[in-house]
Design a protein that fits this description.
- The protein has 351 residues and is an alpha+beta fold.
- 21% of the residues lie in helices and 25% in strands.
- Strands 4, 5, 6, 7, 8, 9, 10, 11, 12, 13 and 14 form an 11-stranded mixed beta sheet that branches. Strands 1-3-2 form a 3-stranded antiparallel beta sheet.
């Protein structure tokens, strides 16, 4: 059997394409077939690391029955409906993720599909006809992740070209991001803008990050004995409003580290309201007793509504892309009703 690579499937690693094309076969089977020359690229032996080009030919020296058994149509089961669609065209689906929903699977595979965004997206695309279940060569994917307790904009690439292009923008600072956050304490005067630049390290086992000052880099990091593992982390924020106990911030993470906004604000002594993990790691923990949950009496009065107060409000394309979106194309997502109500209650401000 000979399979010709279409433009839609170009620019992929051969092994990644084969994993998708033979989606009912173990990865070990794919590598075995490559090693035994039962799968060739343009008639030559391949390792699997080659990048496919339009018109490339894959030669399968495998029985038709075996090939058919290695392919399985992906049919996505019904799950909770998408909460809010912000934008959709042939390339992208942009949604407003609510609090309590995981962006992807990974470590949270035990979570039900009603609490995972990707299965909701895939079922929606299947039902709308945007995804053909018979196409095993590509599955739409999420381009940016938000923590389970962070709400806001998530972009899904509906085809391989769009997914790769958007992933490139996010990975190379080609996407401007704005988050709305409520932090403990008065961070600064209204209108004041600050840029925080430090060093960062993530303990993947404990799923917690830490910020280091420049003078600390000569000391052994807490999570690693290798100072080289530290990465630069840059966060900019502007103070939108203040009260006696809280600050309303517009935050722009310049780098894209995991938990970046949460750990950076905690590091300067102003953790996010509702962030139980990093409030306890604040540099000024005496202000935020662990057992009190770091929430004041005023905040505690509406604790039934209090979640981690962080929302991805705006994403803007800031670099040229092969997709049909000019620089400056942006999407915005409104705050959830309870978040907006808290902002109104504390700051007498509408967002």
């Amino acid at each position: 059997m000979i399979l010709t690579i279409s433009p839609e499937n170009a620019d992929r690693r051969l092994d990644k394409f084969l994993f998708a094309h033979l989606n009912n076969a173990p990865h070990s089977f794919v590598y075995k077939m490559l090693r035994k020359k039962r799968i060739k690229l343009n008639g030559a032996r391949s390792l699997g690391s080659e990048i496919l080009k339009p018109g490339d030919e894959l030669h399968f020296f495998i029985s038709r029955e075996t090939l058919e058994s290695c392919r399985k149509a992906r049919v996505f089961e019904k799950t909770a409906p998408l909460d809010e669609i912000i934008f959709e065209d042939d390339n992208l689906l942009v949604v407003n993720k609510p609090v309590g929903v995981f962006s992807q699977d990974g470590k949270n595979e035990s979570a039900s599909d009603t609490r995972r965004l990707l299965p909701q997206i895939l079922f929606y695309l299947q039902e709308s006809g945007a995804y053909n279940a018979e196409n095993a060569d590509f599955t739409p994917g999420i381009c940016n992740r938000l923590d389970v307790n962070t709400s806001g904009l998530v972009i899904c690439g509906k085809n391989l070209h769009a997914l790769q292009a958007m992933n490139f923008l996010f990975a190379n600072r080609g996407m401007k991001k704005e988050y709305i956050a409520v932090a403990h304490g008065v961070v600064g005067a209204v209108g004041e803008t600050r840029v925080l630049e430090n060093f960062y390290e993530k303990d993947e086992r404990r799923n917690v990050a830490r910020i280091f000052e420049a003078e600390d880099i000569c000391k052994p990091p807490r999570f690693s004995s290798k100072p080289k593992s530290l990465k630069t982390v840059i966060t900019s924020f502007t103070v939108l409003a203040v009260s006696k106990e809280f600050s309303l911030l517009s935050v722009s993470p310049i780098t894209g580290r995991s938990h970046q906004i949460r750990v950076h604000l905690a590091h300067i002594g102003h953790p996010l309201v509702g962030d139980r993990k990093y409030a306890s790691h604040s540099e000024r923990t005496e202000r935020f007793p662990r057992r009190q949950g770091h929430i004041s009496e005023k905040a505690r009065s509406c604790k039934s509504e209090f979640k981690q107060l962080l929302h991805c409000r705006r994403l803007e394309i800031a670099a040229e892309t092969a997709l049909p979106y000019p620089v400056g194309t942006a999407w915005e997502a409104p705050l959830a009703k309870n978040f907006a109500a808290i902002v109104k209650k504390i700051f007498s401000k509408d967002l």
